Amino acid sequence: xxxxxEEASHKTAAAAFTPLFGGMKVLMSxxxxxxxxxxxxxxxxxxxxxxxxxxxxxxxxxxFAHTDWLRGDRALHAILGIKRFxxxxxxxxxxxxxxxxxxxxxxxxxxxxxxxxxxxxxEGFHLDLDxxxxxxxxxEEGARKGYNPxxxxxxxxxxxxx
Length: 162
What we know:
Blueprint: H1 2-9, E1 13-17, E2 26-30, H2 46-58, H3 74-80, H4 88-96, H5 100-116, H6 154-161
Antiparallel strand pairs: 1-2
């Protein structure tokens, strides 16, 4: 009996709607399985945090710290029904909950759907590939010792140390 209840709690509920732009139907689904929610009595609801992030992006934010631009806009808070607007630390903490498996599960179906919307021009596409050096220093993920054109001569020193 308990196993059946657990299985039922992981089933998704789906709803279809037609977006404003485009004639295709969009299928949205959700699962009753809860996203890790904040446990503090003083926590800001996750929906408010996501709304704050999206509004910050729409208004030109290019980093989490720019979320604070909207914290002083009491009229916006009243329109949205948000009593306490989250700051940049809250938004950053929200996104730190997502790991590569979550992102893959979300992005792959979205990317597949987006590709169905691409209209191929009669003359075809042109693909221009450029190479670029991404500089990573210290113990960042993916960092390793190598050549850096901005710091010539230091590569050999690092090899001797390393």
